[in-house]
Write a structure and sequence with these properties.
The protein is an alpha+beta fold. It has a single domain, classed as Muramoyl-pentapeptide Carboxypeptidase, domain 2, CATH 3.30.1380. It has three helices and four strands. A four-stranded mixed sheet has the order 1-3-2-4, covered by helices on one side. It is globular and about 40 Å long. It starts with 19 loop residues before the first helix and ends with a strand.
């Protein structure tokens, strides 16, 4: 299973605040994430499965694009369509990326430090990936 750009907007289909820039970011994000997920599977890992909450790789309702009045910081990468929380309840993807940080460089992605999502398994557990560099510039960053 792979990430579709439209999955990022599934919680808010046809929302009036979705801009062409959000759609372009979501398309680029899904392209890069899918390249990473392809390598993840080619490296012998089982593909990620759909979240029981969303039916997609987005773990929760607000795991993709978020409208301006949704939770999160006003300048959040989610609100730009530039971040996704992938369903990763057993942290397989998080651990694989941490063991091979070169994949983040190769696909020009950034990952929220998994310690910020530990203990979230009951909520669906996720791997936060974004195409937007954090202020620190670190590939694995603290929110």
């Amino acid at each position: 299973m792979f990430l579709r750009a439209r999955d990022l907007f599934a919680a808010y289909p046809n929302h009036p605040d979705i801009q062409p820039s959000h759609e372009a970011n979501a398309l680029e994000l899904s392209r890069r994430v899918n390249a990473l997920l392809n390598e993840f599977v080619e490296d012998g890992n089982e593909p990620l499965t759909a979240s029981p909450v969303t039916g997609t790789l987005c773990t929760l309702r607000n795991a993709g694009w978020r409208p301006p009045n949704a939770s999160g910081a006003p300048g959040s990468a989610h609100k730009q369509g530039a971040a996704v929380d992938l369903h990763d309840p057993d942290a397989r993807l998080d651990n694989w990326i941490l063991s091979r940080p070169d994949v983040l460089v190769r696909y020009n992605l950034y990952m929220e430090d998994p310690s910020a999502t530990e203990g979230q398994v009951t909520k669906g557990g996720w791997c936060h990936l974004t195409i937007r560099a954090p202020r620190s510039g670190r590939r694995v960053f603290m929110p």
